[in-house]
Amino acid sequence: MEVLILTTSHFKSSGHNHLQDIRPYLLMSLRSVFLKSKEYLKYSIFNRK
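Structure (tokenized):
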């Protein structure tokens, strides 16, 4: 979650319009990837035991 917050603050301070446009899509994709990897890690950890 800290990575997402840092990314958004960096994009806001940079002030590039194209970054502002892709930011919602980028956050959505990052969040989905983060959740998927989290679930995958949880699954693999449980399988290892």
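The radius of gyration is 15 Å. The helical segments are 2-14, 17-48.
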